[in-house]
# Entry
Amino acid sequence: MNLKILPIVLLISFLFFGQTSKASNQVNNTIDSIIVLKSQRLMLLMKEGEIAKSYRISLGKNPIGNKTTEGDKKTPEGLYYVEYKKSDSKFYKALKISYPNEQDRQRSASLGVPPGGLIMIHGLPNDMKSIGKFHRRIDWTDGCIAVTNEEIDEIWDMVPIGIPVYISP
# Structure
């Protein structure tokens, strides 16, 4: 792991450790939070303050900065939660995150623009599943966080609905 991000990961882990999630029935193989480090193109699955698993990711086509409006192709930044799992997605499988939160709605309202929505952690498009890990060469989503289909299968099994998702710049 890059030593520059280690203090950030430790701080975020400390903030999440001990915090109760919105999920009620967690089992031993589940994780308790997700941390996305946009600048590193890295997603960390956390369990009890430790990194349980990490994944290389692709982001929105316009990855720098926080999402402010629908269609800006930016991946949001802030604290969210996994709202539900979607198995009938056009992206193989997907985990819907709770964007926009109240801060996002207020920011967009102050700008007079819609905040957008449907931000997910998802696999590859159903018509491009053979691309595999090569999808990571570019940021290609409309603001979502993308992993391979094999990775979303693994994530799907470990992530309970309601856990926090922290997305950092």
Q: What stands out?
A: The helical segments are 6-16, 102-111, 149-158. The first strand starts at residue 33 and ends at 37. Residues 6-168 form a domain with the L,D-transpeptidase catalytic domain-like fold (CATH 2.40.440.10). Residues 120 and 141 are 10 Å apart (CA to CA).
